[in-house]
Amino acid sequence: MNGLSTDQYLRVAGVVIVSTVVLTAVFLGVLAVVTGKAPGLGGRVPVYMLLMAVAFVISVVGLIRCDVGGGVVLSAATGAGVLTFCIGLLAGEGVVFTVREPSAVFGSELVVYFLAAALIGTGLSY
Prior knowledge:
The chain is mostly helical and 126 residues long. 83% of the residues lie in helices and 0% in strands.
């Protein structure tokens, strides 16, 4: 039988844990933005834009080594940048919301539901 080694199990566990935490932060960020509990968001958008630009450049540099056309590289890098912006913004706002209003996050069962949904989402995508 071809099983996973201990290192492979640890890598998978790490990916699952990080992905679940980030997705939970994204869910909390959606809640914060939708309910209007993200004051000062406009002042943090430049940081999220910088994150998007870094992801775009890293994607271009990484994909340019592949044997694909420039249009494919540009499209994929643009998609990676936009996705990074969205995830960065929502996860960042989820963290800010959690720090500013911990009782709203941990005072109810909300965080447990978000963790469960994030874990299911991680499992489905894995």
